[in-house]
Amino acid sequence: MLTRFALRRLVLGAGQVLLLLVLVFGLSLLLPGDAADARAGEWFSEQQRTQTRQLLGLDLAPVTRFLRWLGHVLTGDLGTSYAGGEPVARVIGEPFAVTGLMAALTTLVLLPVAGCAGFAAGLRPGSVRDRVITTVSVVLDSIPDFVLSVLAVAYLAVRLRLFPATFLGVDLSGMLAEPGYLVLPLTVMVARVAAPIVRLVRAGVIDVLDQPYIRQARRFGVGRASLLLRHVAPNALGPALQELGRTGDGLLSGVLIVEAVFALPGIASTLIEAIGDRDQPVILAIVLITGVVAIAVNTLIDLAGQRMVPRRGRS
Amino acid sequence: MVESPGAAARSPLSRRGFLLGTGLAVGALASGCADASGSGVDTFSAVFKGSGADESLDPGTSHLFIDEARLKALYDGLFEVDDAMRPVPRLATAAEPNADGTRWRITLRDARWHDGAKVTSADVLHTLSRILGPAGQQPFIAATTLDLVDLGQSREVDERTAEIALHRPSFEFRTALAAYGTRIIRAGTRDFRRPVGTGPFRFDSFRPGREMVATSYDGYWDGAPRIGRLRILSAENDARTAAVRSGQADFADDLTPAAAKQMRGDGNLRVQATPNSGIYYFAMKTDRPPFDNADVRRALMRMVDREELVKVALQGDGEISNDVFGKGFQYYAELPQHTFDPDAAKALLRKAGVPNLTIDLFTAPAATGFVEAANLFAEQAKQSGVTVRVRVGSGDTYYAEALKTGQLTMGQSGPLSIPNHFASRLLTGSPQNRTNWHDPEFDALYGQALATASEPERAALYHRMHEILHDRGGFVFWGISSWNSAAAAGYRGIPAGVPNALNWARFDKVAR
Predict the structure, then answer these.
(1) Which residue of B has its CA nearest to A56?
(2) pTM here?
(3) Max CA-CA distance within chain A?
(4) Which residues of A touch B11 (CB under 8 A)?
(5) DSSP character for B9?
(6) Which of A49, A178, A295, B177 is the most exposed place for a label (fewest CB within 10 A)?
(7) CATH superfamily assigned to domain A97-270
(8) What pLDDT does B109 receive?
């Protein structure tokens, strides 16, 4: 059952990624100008631009270019960047690692923090504790993340100098060697995605606590800890876990703001630069990898959700 | 590598403390290794506007400001230009023409490459032949500037003397040798991933879009730099500001007027505003209606309220200009200031037979204030009975598109010597002829000026060319912005030249 579900999702996922690539490539062609124009700035003559176009292979038909790119990808070669002539793998390797690290750390911080906050609020709805947690999460949710980022930089980094203001000149090993760099961006990222999860966990807990089987378990004298961990938690966390899947998508757009403000060398800013450069090999490679990761994460979360709350019939 | 105060351990729990428990715990570890890199070498970190994967270290093809800053640290040109765009000898000690300006004898300084080898005339000829030879993945920036060089007739006279032959006379050849993309590379070099130059700093490492690190070169002919190590970092506007304000960087280039204003109150920083740095213009395509009529062009020059444009689009951080390029530069012509005069504009348009003119203005967020200037100009033009339709394109590819399309476009130019401005933008066949200016009289004057040995006589010819453009040219140069930078207050010798000039982004004279 689970295997067939996984297999179906795999085939569906591959189709989705291909569709996404075609769509993104098509959209990138609709942008004004091409890589030669973007590179030309005010320095190249018309003739030099034509020459650049030929050197980059931009004079070929778009369909040919796309199919060639796809062919190379199937052999494991992501191609060469139009902008600097570097292999695409080298251009996107470290940025993916940086963004991946950010996403992983965010999730690592998010799960206990948002989970506990939601639980704490849901156990005593209407209490002072609940109102404080709910208010804080609503307030954080309603501050746009760029405002939060800019405020964090202006006060905590520039004025108080508690943390570095930017990631200038820091590479992945530098970030790991000196995690002080990660505090502000992680804070903003967690604040950005925590609120809906807190809300869902809280609602789940309230909902589950009201179920007849919980009342029954209580009447049986099941201990408080055991009740919360074995009966309430799995059922209350299901919807929140689904939300976490969506958070994955939200993380990417959130990471863009954070990358821009903190000059974090991640994949979102690499993508924006690639779009500015009309650098299709880089754009497509990023879309390919993020697409695969997003679909994989969602599938895994669906699988986990199915295990946690098994439902009869089709999901 | 840590210049930043990584003192996370001092941080008290913030309001959001409960949400960031883990983050703070992680951060607290940071302080322990904050000074791990205390190697005793004085590192100077300078941040410039970055451009991602596009950045490179090839002296022949790089054309971004940040690339220039890096190349200036690693390489030298035979000549560079001062703040008035006059050529100053650098790797060359002199360049002397023959009587008709068709052969130049260049003598080289006693300088050494970073690996200890001598700089020779073979290096000069190699550099020229690379620029004029077949392009690799990118065209060479100076290919058109130097296309008058006759390589076949040029030769090494001796180790320190080169004789360069020209296809046609030019007494401005020193200026051509100071242009972008002409820094001297070592004979035989093809790979620029680990550059060996003659400049004040030796290459250590480079990551495009991130940073370059270089170390002081003790054997530098112009005196070893006072700082031990130079880092040139890439960042967008806000990050540049934050980096220098938080003490993470020692120098930030190209600040917005708002950021500069804010930093003037900061005692830890010294903000410098260099005037005559960014020249803003409207460009009329003179080969198509309605601007193929000189009276319509004259009218446009009078439809522009320059004071207001500078106040709004440049946020007051600049001054008005007069449709003559290169204020403050050698060969600039002081001519009567064009003023905002809707009545005169209307009269000229009536004379041209287009009293109710409608024009398209193609703009894009390609530089600060472009779209604002376009919209403001559309308002101003109404007073002369002209309807301006503003079309906003993509900032990424704007310059390439504006070269071929549209009636009226916009631009911003960094400082450039006036002869090079004429050569690259205003001659029939110029590579960036944005106004499609093809004027036989103008072309002839330019050829005549280049063939004139006497500098005052050359200046007189350039003056006549300026008069033609001031009267009926296609450019409306409406404003000149300042260039703002900020540096940590503890340093002396911070560079303060106009962009593209020798003293811009020059860090070999910086000292604590």
Answers:
(1) B137
(2) 0.86
(3) 85
(4) 156, 162-163
(5) G
(6) A295
(7) MetI-like (1.10.3720.10)
(8) 96
